[in-house]
Task: structure prediction
Amino acid sequence: MATTTVSVSTFKKWNTGGHIKFQQTDDGKVALVWCALCAKHSDKIYRDSRIRGVAHKDLDKYISGTMFVTKHSVFRHLSSSKSHQIATECENILRDHGTTSSSSHTAVISDTNTGNRPKLQQLSIDSAMHKASRDAYKKLLNTAYLLAVNGLPLFQFKTLVNVQKANGTKLITKCDSSAKAREFIHEIAKSVWLKITGMLKAATAFALLTDGSQARKTGSEKEMVLIRVVRNGIPIFVCAALQDVDKYGSANAENLKKAIDDVFNEAALKVNIGRDKYNKGLVSFTSDGASVNTGMYNGLITRMKNDSRSWLVSFHCVLHRLELAIKDSLMKIPSFKAVYDLMVAIYYIFKQSGKLKGNFYNMAKVLDVQVYNFPKVHGTRFISHQKRGLQHLLHNWIVLSQTMEDCIENNKVSNMSAKLRGVLKKLKDFNFMSVCVLYMQIVENVTSLSLRLEKNDLAVSEVLPAVNRTRAKCEDLLAVEVVQPEDLCKPFGFKLIQTGGIFTCDYIC
Result:
């Protein structure tokens, strides 16, 4: 325990109002201090719902006594601690009723004349039960919070609670159902909305970002509403709500606007900042390039502007634009499109044939190398999918080519022989491999740009310089000196075979 002390004469000059008592040492030093007022009303303070977290630690120190004696810590307790504020409220109530007698459940008895350390008494049974229940509920709330943050289904809440009970954690019984998990998560959400409301009320302006998607199981249309606001000089993003658009009808611009407006509606009890603050404080709106959002006459952004926000600045999400631009640019080049088609074909070949996958992993064991699954490279998030697919393809290149040769030669997967020959032909083509390496270098350059644009503290003025730097990196690839094919193949363990001016690749045994 940290120990800091002062002399008794210095302590008496602090003028603590008689609330802070002390115990002194033989050499005239203050050994221990405690708050007589908090000790007097400790039972009521412990039962108050405002006391939690750090406030509990402060209360425990100034009831049982603390050896950390500084003027700053003492006056911080007197001026800003919740426990002392509650104790003062209780004392004022007693004074108003014409009595200054202590509570019948006083937890601490102190001898202020002799300066003896306060003697602890057992708390009343109701106070002890309240503290135990509060601690148990706090653990259940933490479990529900982690359940929601990680996107786990509600029925797994019971499993998580049982794991804690098996490890000796004391929790309240009959609070492990899905209904209880939903109730806990709702209460946490209310606290988050209250915090967001406070941030927006304190801010002079804020921005909205929305994005829609469909739930995988139900297929219902969802709209994510995020808020960008400056807090302590730093721009941050907060998730305000995930609205179910199906409740409003079809996913058109009018219903999307209703869903967003309801997040800030007083009756919705979410981000309740008032209609005036919502209208005047919103300065920008960001969305993807879907026509339902960017329509000139009836789009969502147009409707937001027409709702008394003529100044509203609209943005087409930079990350969406980057994804679309890169995908369109790369897929117009036939050689890169061939690489993309090969990765899609390999993904479906392995998905459809467990026998081929087994042969692939057996070959990896024979060659004593680590291999990775071939991921899905088509769909949303084009850049990240392409990078991961190319990384796995180049890493697995040798094992994959040997597996194809073995399956074709020994007729292990007869129904796929034609497809395997097509894949193997490309794997043994040096030109195709060099295109894969170039494709990977381009995607790596663009990935760094994508990660930069995902940062919360990104300013608008930083977007164009970041794009120009990435463009310069890609142009530098054209200025690379010509290297020999053998040098490119060395990292992949291949040897080149030249036949009539045509290079082919073969695995180095």
In short: Residues 100-115 have pLDDT under 50 and may be disordered.
